[in-house]
Amino acid sequence: MAQVSGRCDERFAAVQEVFERNLDEGLDLGASCAAYLDGEAVVDIWGGCVDAERTTPWVADTIANVWSTTKTMTNLCALVLADAAELDFGARVVRYWPEFAAGGKRDVEVRHLLGHTSGLAGWTVPVTVEDLYDWEKASSLLAGQEPWWEPGSAGGYHALTQGFLVGELVRRITGQTLGGFFAEQVAGPLGADFFIGTPPTADPRVAPLVPPEELPRVREEDAPFALRTFLNPPMSAETSSTVPWRRAEVPAANGHGNARSVAAVHSVLACGGEARGVRLLSAAGCARVLEEQFDGRDLVLGVPIRYGMGFGLSSEVVPGGPRTFYWGGWGGSVVVADLDARLCVAYVMNKMGSGVVGDDRGSSLVRAAFAALT
Questions:
Q1: DSSP letters for 210-241
Q2: What does the alpha-carbon distance between residue 7 and residue 19 come to, in Å, rounded to a whole number?
Q3: Domain residues for 345?
Q4: How many domains does the chain have?
Q5: For residue 207, how many other CB atoms are within 10 A of its CB?
Q6: CA–CA gap between residue 358 and residue 330 (Å, rounded)
Q7: Could you give the CA distance from residue 279 to residue 290 in angstroms, rounded to a whole number?
């Protein structure tokens, strides 16, 4: 039997049972799961090991690269600025970033960036992983290029670019980097152990990711922009274990945290902007997450999807309540929140599955948590 530590309210015992089964069946190597209800932790558990040799246990403060679950943190920063009337989702991007007008993008709106509809799913010129560590280069290239489709007319997952696009708006408005703004305005007030730009002091706590057994397969006839997005630059799971990757700010992909920190942050959104005495935004500001930006087949992922303002929304493909929102990361990390239930659930692990945005390990934990409310 897997050794699982932490706490789990009796009402949510089924969540721990699923978590233990994932470890016992070898689906997980090391992992954490957390759930917050009405802003308070009702599940905060962890178990397994941080290394493939199973010599070092996953402990309470172990963290891992969560890949695209980072986007939820980045887009929350945009929601905070919008709620403070410093960022207008309906305004043209050029209002804040004049250089963005190049390439016929003068009419692209801020909401197009958050809703994956801007046509900037990737870079047109070849870029390297090292280019991602150069903020000025990565963002300037996007500002100068033409969109791949008519902005607002279709959705295509902005796998790496969304972080630079939204992050540059945050920088232009606040004078801070995205990681700096997040640390000061979100993680700090909430006491959340999550980093976008991980400091050297956190390195000993990082669980290296175990690469997936196979890479996701997307047919170009289903997703015409998949290869242009995912292979420029070509990414590998091993990249996440390098020091340059950790130190850089890649706000769509290199956030480091655990389930507790991910759920603690999203509990604020689930609870109308305030949790545990900390208010980040208004209830109306939280509800903007639900403003639909796209509903159809994604040109990059090749699957039906429904995008809200910075998050995925429930649909026939991803069921949930009318006010449920979510996102996940390559290999399996995921967070799901619901404004009506005032519940959020997060899962972070180190053994990557083959999915781009989540898999059954995380979704089974989410289902168990929401079932506990019925």
A1: BPPSS-----TTT-TTHHHHHBTTB--GGGGG
A2: 12
A3: 4-371
A4: 1
A5: 27
A6: 7
A7: 19
Band of the pLDDT at 325, cuts 50, 70, 90?
Answer: very high
Sign of CA dihedral 18, 20, 23, 25: negative
In degrees, to the nearest 5, what angle opens at C-alpha 326 toward C-alphas 321 and 328?
Answer: 145
Instruction: Give 317's pLDDT tier (boundaries 50, 70, 90).
Output: confident
- Residue ranges of the alpha helices (H) in 99-241? 110-114, 135-144, 161-174, 178-182, 188-190, 226-230
Q: Using alpha carbons, list the distances in angstroms from residue 47 to 4, 6, 26, 238.
A: 5, 9, 12, 22
Structure tokens at 103: 């390439």
Domain CATH number, residue 290: 3.40.710.10
- Listed in sequence order, the DSSP H helices in 84-207 are 110-114, 135-144, 161-174, 178-182, 188-190
Under the banding of pLDDT at 50, 70 and 90, the label for residue 371 is very high
Pairing of the two strands 343-349 and 324-328: unpaired
Alpha-carbon gap, residue 361 to 70, rounded angstroms: 19
Nearest residue to 48 (alpha-carbon basis) of 158, 207, 204: 207
* Residue 138, amino acid: A
Name which of 21, 7, 26, 34 is nearest 345 in CA terms. 34
